[in-house]
Design brief:
With about 130 residues, the chain is an all-beta fold. The protein is about 0% helix and about 50% strand. The chain contains no helices and 11 strands. The protein has strands at about 5, 10-15, 20-25, 30-40, 45-50, 60, 70-75, 80-85, 90-100, 115, 120-125. Strands 2, 4, 5, 6, 9, 10 and 11 form a 7-stranded mixed β-sheet that branches. A hairpin with a 6-residue loop joins β5 and β6 (about 60). The radius of gyration is 13 Å and the shape is globular. The termini are far apart.
């Protein structure tokens, strides 16, 4: 059974930083693409960042480029999202997702590109 467990969310003032982590189990983590999405109240879930199986390729939504950094540690089955210069618009539930295809060449940016999802971690940015 695949499990993705996010952690690291919280309440932060604008301009602050956070590091989100996702611990994966039940899949061959080192072989799959991982992604981070977020969903703000009343809005659709949107792609934030993705990283390929080796960590050698990353992709970001335009809205977060330069502020978000995705990374992975295949030895620890974790993927992280470092968020700098937080803005109130970053307030959302952040979800970790895994693509079950192994050694995928593309980093998906849609929710349908991913097969497994975590429960999410809340990030709230106060102004």
């Amino acid at each position: 059974q695949v499990q993705l467990v996010e952690s690291g969310g919280g309440l932060v003032q604008a301009g602050g930083s956070l590091r989100l982590s996702c611990l994966a189990s039940g899949l061959t983590f080192s072989m799959v693409t991982m992604g981070w999405f977020r969903q703000a109240p009343g809005k659709e879930r949107e792609f934030v960042a993705g990283i390929n199986w080796s960590g050698g390729n990353t992709y970001y939504a335009d809205s977060v480029k330069g502020r978000f950094i995705i990374s992975r540690d295949n030895a620890k089955n974790t993927v992280s999202l470092e968020i700098d210069t937080l803005k109130p618009d970053d307030t959302a539930v952040y979800y970790c997702a895994a693509d079950r295809k192994t050694f995928g060449r593309m980093i998906g940016t849609t929710t349908t590109s991913y097969d497994y999802w975590g429960q999410g971690t809340q990030v709230t940015v106060s102004s």
